[in-house]
Every structure is written in C-alpha cells, then in structure tokens.
Q: What sequence folds into this?
C-alpha cells in the first residue's frame, strides 16, 4: 500500500515527509508501548501510535519505521516535527481512534507483523 | 575509530542522540542495514536505561572493520539482581518512564537479542556497566 493511500484511508494530515508519499508500506504495527516497537524487525512498516512524544520519533528512527501515524487526534510538538524532518521520516496525524485506523488499513490490505 | 557521548539521567528529550550519531557513522562506512538496525536498537535501549534509571552516563563506541564494541557506563542505583533484570517483563522503572512508552521490562532482553556478545556488571549504589559487541 502506498503511503498516500494510507493518508487517504486515515483522512490524515501529512506533517513531515510529504515528498515520500509514493513509498510503499506492507506491514502495520499498533502500539503505545515503544519498547514493543523496538522488537519488530519488519521492513516497510507503518507504526500507529497515540504516544506523541520525541521518543516515538527516535524509536521510529532506530526501528527503521517507514511512516508514523499518530492517531486519536494526537498532535506532534515542534521538537518532534524537527527531529522527524531531520530523519526524513514520514509522519501523519489522524483523528481516528486506534481501532478505527487499524480496521480501515487492514481492509485496505495492510498486513499484521505477527 | 573511537566515539564518546554523554547521556543525561532523566532527560528523555536527549535519549537516542548517541544512537542516532552512531547510526549515521555506520551508514557512512556502508555497514549492512540489518546489522545497523540491531546495533542502534540495542544502543538506544541502553541509552534509555541510563536516562530512566541513572543520574548520568557515557557511551563509548569503538568501531573497526570487523565489529562494533559499545560500553555504556552510568552512575546510579545499579542493578540488584542482574538475572532478574534480564528477565522479560521485570522492571523497576518509575511511572514517569512508563508514561514515556518504556519501562515494560523489555530493554535488557531486547539488547541481548540484538547483540553478539553482552556483559553486564553492576555495583549497587554506584552504577552499571553494559558492554556489547556486534560483528559486521
């Protein structure tokens, strides 16, 4: 699934990495526990989280996450936006609940990690 | 090549700085992306541990053509029972640390999974030394 399709399905606002929306993601992982994200070794990964802090961006950087979607209407801080931009990370914000976001992405063909 | 970084206890906004710098260096010397990920995930977990538990720490990384050796040394409470600390799910992290998305007792087991050699020593009331090696 291309990231611009993710944006459309989640009715999301693109915050950083707007030039990379033609990239593909194959897997989705949803967690507010960043420790769990660090155990995932899938590539082409979309992370859904409500954990809107700087460490979510750092975690995405280390875990090679392709795109972070902040759900439940969580907003990124200016520091998060700066770090995500520096790392070339695609970040988006959606007002959907975690469950709603997962449901539409799963219906759209995004696969679970396990 | 030797690199050294300071880690500030309690300051989550800076956790991951050393990992980010090491990642850039490893990319520059063309280390395989999967190996880079193992190294930086382990290092980042280690940095988070210092921020979460200690008052201050240092990260020392020594890179040659075959491996990276990382030594994370901190001043802090130390670890009372290392075997217990290595167990998945065991944690002494504060509520504040848990609110940041960590402190689930996953860090040390994940570090072990992502390194080829690991040595953890600690003196209660003084601090902890975590050494790890990953081969290229």
A:
């Amino acid at each position: 699934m291309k990231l611009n399709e993710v944006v459309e399905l989640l009715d999301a606002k693109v915050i950083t990495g707007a030039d990379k929306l033609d990239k593909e993601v194959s897997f989705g992982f949803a967690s507010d526990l960043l420790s769990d994200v660090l155990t995932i070794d899938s590539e082409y990964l979309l992370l859904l989280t409500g954990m809107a802090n700087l460490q979510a961006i750092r975690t995405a950087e280390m875990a090679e996450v392709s795109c972070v979607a902040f759900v439940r209407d969580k907003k990124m801080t200016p520091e998060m936006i700066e770090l995500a931009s520096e790392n070339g990370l695609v970040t988006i914000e959606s007002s959907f609940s975690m469950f709603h976001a997962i449901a539409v992405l799963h219906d759209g063909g995004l696969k679970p990690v396990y | 090549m030797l690199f050294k970084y300071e880690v500030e206890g309690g300051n989550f906004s800076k956790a991951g700085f050393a990992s980010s710098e090491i990642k850039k260096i490893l990319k520059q010397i063309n280390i395989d992306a999967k190996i880079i990920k193992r190294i930086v995930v382990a290092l980042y977990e280690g940095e988070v541990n210092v921020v979460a538990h200690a008052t201050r720490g240092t990260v020392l990384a020594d890179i040659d053509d075959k491996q990276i050796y990382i030594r994370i040394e901190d001043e802090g409470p130390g670890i009372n029972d290392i075997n217990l600390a290595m167990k998945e799910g065991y944690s002494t992290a504060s509520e504040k640390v848990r609110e940041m998305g960590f402190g689930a007792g996953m860090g040390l087991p994940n570090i072990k999974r992502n390194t080829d050699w690991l040595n953890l020593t600690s003196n209660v009331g003084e601090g902890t030394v975590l050494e790890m090696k990953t081969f290229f």
